[in-house]
Design brief:
mainly alpha, single chain, globular, two-stranded parallel ribbon
């Protein structure tokens, strides 16, 4: 009987404790941090692309670059990208080094997922071999025909051949230059020719050339 009394007593004490805890925190409130308050005015603004006069500038596109892994989560980065921009550019996942698995085999799984997800938002992709002059020129000309002009070009493609110089052929070296360097000239040249032929010159433009950090690294047997 004593054990039952003890159990009953413990149950009553536990009940009283919980009741006290509920009473203690029921009316608890906290103030919003000042660091958040000062940015609340941003909520009054619409999405970035809603501020573009599509009638006066039907070919104007807003674009941004994203980290593929963040975009594929379809969380905050995906929402901000889709709501505010017309076009999206993948980050490092599109580079040659990111498409090779641990065994040295080509793996385009992540790239395909990105393209599929981005297409569902209305983004446009053009398949092109940048090492092929005609293929790249036709791609740029097609984009200029569709949009009327280009405001920003990002040259981000690149490949590598990780072999000692004594084992690297002239053909291997030419292949690297045809992918990493020559497309920069081709795209920039075509845009310059296009801009020069415009009836109303467009003074705005950006050509962004992204190089690898490999030049900062020391390679053994190189």
């Amino acid at each position: 009987m004593k054990y039952y009394n003890r159990i009953l007593l413990l149950a009553m004490v536990a009940g009283i404790t919980v009741s006290c805890a509920d009473a203690l925190f029921a009316d608890y409130k906290t103030e919003k941090p000042e660091s958040l308050k000062k940015y609340e005015y941003l909520n009054e603004y619409g999405d970035l692309k809603t501020y573009i006069d599509r009638i006066s500038h039907p070919d104007f596109k807003l674009g941004t670059g994203v980290t593929v892994s963040d975009f594929l989560k379809q969380d905050l980065v995906y929402t901000l990208t889709v709501n505010n921009y017309d076009d999206v550019t993948a980050g490092n996942a599109m580079k040659y080094s990111s498409c090779v698995d641990a065994k040295g085999n080509m793996d385009f799984g992540t790239v395909k997922k990105f393209v599929k997800t981005a297409k569902e938002t209305g983004s446009i992709f053009h398949k092109v071999d940048v090492s092929n002059k005609e293929s790249l020129e036709n791609c740029v000309l097609q984009i200029l025909k569709e949009w009327g002009d280009l405001d920003i070009i990002i040259n981000n493609v690149g490949i590598s051949n990780f072999s000692p110089i004594t084992e690297t052929s002239i053909e291997d070296f030419d292949k690297i230059l045809s992918v990493n360097l020559r497309p920069v000239f081709i795209t920039s040249r075509l845009l310059a020719i296009h801009r020069k032929a415009l009836s109303f010159p467009n003074p705005y433009g950006r050509i962004i050339n992204i190089c690898s950090t490999r030049y900062l690294m020391r390679l053994m047997h190189g």
